[in-house]
Specification:
12 helices; 2 domains; 6-stranded mixed β-sheet; 7-stranded mixed β-sheet; single chain; alpha/beta; globular; Aldehyde Dehydrogenase, Chain A, domain 2
């Protein structure tokens, strides 16, 4: 069996990696690069580590284009628990083969922590790119670099949106609806926290959000008329419900409770939770600190831009943030001084276009190079500098005791 023959590849049973290792040993070229994305597990034990949350096809494309475009062989590891687009990795690989990509360039293997550890320690693997939870990202980074590999490990996020008193509230509300509830909040650039400067700003945002939330349709993702579909798995759905309960327990005000959302007949057993909206969320609360990865939006009330920025800077994550304002001076001060890797000005999801790099600060990114853009080229390549000199024929030079480049 060869892992580049995607149609013939059969995923091993959990805990049985014999076929995986056989595939690796039979592969004509062992991958130089490991690309994988784990779902938000709580620890390193057992199969939690290997639960793979595959990106959408568009997300996959950017990473693989960077890697393959820089002339690398790619090994794509996927785990056992997958969302509705669970076979996207296999589909991308199949499409790549049909498009003429040579066998062995892109490889897909099912695996869990055992497989990942083997790859992180294998001397033939030169670089590792990872997206997932911060504990696992830190583990991948520490283990990979300890074995001499170049590693970029993107971790968790808790993105804040600052809304200033002079903001266009109607546009800010519309922007936050998509940022908080798009993809059910299951994306690293989701915005689960609004930091409203002034009570009047908070009240205006809440009023607008409640109106828009009431219009939302929740149901199967196969129906394009729905605004939001189900969560990825039943355990994750229960986890998000637990966060909502924890928010109430810790004193936040639950304004909109989506736990009993009505869905179309026949889908009652689905993993649905509707939009949830909290007010009076405070630092230290679980729903403030943790990345929920679900449709839960919290309002944090502050008195000034400086207070808002202090909260953001103090958080362990620094993936993305944004500010809604009409004041150019406030926007410039915020973008220049905030300790976050990607910043939006009246843009709720500050995901840069592909020719800029994507990556956060603090515990949202482990490694020196971000994804996409110029950093991706640097990550997937090695720089070589060649110094040459061609003296004229017949010219004999004496010994030189300084660097030739100094002449």
């Amino acid at each position: 069996m060869s892992i580049h023959r995607i149609p013939d590849f059969t995923a091993p049973a959990p805990g049985d990696l014999t076929d995986c290792y056989a595939a690796l040993s039979d592969s004509p070229v062992l991958a130089k690069l490991l690309l994988h994305r784990f779902s938000r597990g709580d620890g390193l034990e057992g199969h939690t580590f290997g639960n793979l949350l595959l990106a959408t096809l568009s997300e996959e494309r950017g990473t693989l284009e960077d890697a393959i475009g820089d002339v690398n062989q790619v090994l794509r590891v996927r785990g056992q628990v997958l969302p509705a687009t669970f076979d996207s990795a296999l589909l991308v690989a199949q499409l790549a083969i049909e498009a003429g990509l040579p066998p062995g360039v892109l490889n897909v293997v099912n695996g869990d922590k055992e497989a990942v550890d083997a790859l992180l320690k294998d001397k033939r693997i030169q670089a590792v790119s990872f997206v997932g939870s911060t504990p696992i990202a830190e583990y991948v980074y520490a283990t990979g670099t300890a074995h001499g590999k170049r590693v970029q490990a993107l971790g968790g996020a808790k993105n804040h949106a600052v809304v200033m008193p002079d903001a266009d509230v109607a546009n800010a509300v519309s922007a936050m609806m998509g940022a908080a509830f798009g993809s059910c909040g299951e994306r690293c650039m989701a915005v689960p926290l609004i930091v409203a400067v002034g009570d009047a700003t908070a009240d205006a945002m809440i009023a607008g959000l409640k109106v828009e939330i009431a219009k939302m349709k929740v149901g199967p993702g196969t129906d394009a008329s729905n605004d939001m579909g189900p969560l990825v798995t039943k355990p994750h759905c229960e986890k998000v419900r637990g966060y909502v309960a924890k928010g109430v327990e810790e004193g936040a005000t639950l304004l909109v409770d989506g736990r009993n959302v009505q869905v179309p007949p026949g889908y009652e057993a689905g993993y649905f939770i509707g939009p949830c909206l909290f007010d009076n969320v405070k630092p230290g609360m679980t729903i403030y600190q943790d990345e929920i990865f679900g449709p839960v939006l919290g309002i944090v009330r502050v008195k000034s831009l400086q207070e808002a920025m202090a909260l953001i800077d103090a958080h362990e994550y620094g993936n993305g943030t944004c500010i809604f304002t009409r004041d150019g001076e406030a926007a410039r001060y915020f973008s220049d001084n905030i300790l976050v890797g990607m910043v939006g000005i009246n843009v709720p999801l500050p995901v840069p276009v592909a020719y800029h790099s994507f990556g956060g600060w603090k515990r949202s990114l482990f490694g020196d190079l971000s994804a996409y853009g110029p950093d991706a080229v640097r990550f997937y390549t090695k720089r070589k500098t060649i110094t040459q000199r061609w003296p004229s024929a017949g010219v004999r030079e004496g010994a030189v005791f300084s660097f030739p480049s100094n002449r």
